[in-house]
């Protein structure tokens, strides 16, 4: 397990072993790289980040990941694969499941109140974009990117 303090001052535990946390994940995050670029959404408050969000009632984490990616970017995904989980020690402990996915297509969509669009970022832009959200800049993101380098699909 890898533990760090995020940029909001909260302790975060990151694990690449499934089911290591006592709290059940209710949030998702999805890494997708296509044509050597990372899929990101543009959150109106937080900035540029990897797509993800909350699981809705009656929905599996996989269904939540597919829905969130589409709602935030218009991108259809395939070959969703469990990658990691992390627990954020906020007032109420919460856990996110991190998936990887592959590109299956894209539609033009109307973006909701939370996001203002999507973008594809090169590795350099992904690391250095001037409007990255706070969690894109923390030690956990760097650790996940290091681990992704060992994954065959990247």
UniProtKB/TrEMBL annotation:
<dbReference type="GO" id="GO:0016787">
    <property type="term" value="F:hydrolase activity"/>
</dbReference>
<protein>
    <submittedName>
        <fullName>NUDIX domain-containing protein</fullName>
    </submittedName>
</protein>
<dbReference type="InterPro" id="IPR000086">
    <property type="entry name" value="NUDIX_hydrolase_dom"/>
</dbReference>
<feature type="domain" description="Nudix hydrolase">
    <location>
        <begin position="21"/>
        <end position="145"/>
    </location>
</feature>
<dbReference type="Pfam" id="PF00293">
    <property type="entry name" value="NUDIX"/>
</dbReference>
<dbReference type="InterPro" id="IPR020476">
    <property type="entry name" value="Nudix_hydrolase"/>
</dbReference>
<dbReference type="InterPro" id="IPR015797">
    <property type="entry name" value="NUDIX_hydrolase-like_dom_sf"/>
</dbReference>
<dbReference type="InterPro" id="IPR014078">
    <property type="entry name" value="Nudix_YtkD"/>
</dbReference>
<dbReference type="InterPro" id="IPR020084">
    <property type="entry name" value="NUDIX_hydrolase_CS"/>
</dbReference>
<comment type="similarity">
    <text>Belongs to the Nudix hydrolase family.</text>
</comment>
<keyword id="KW-0378">Hydrolase</keyword>
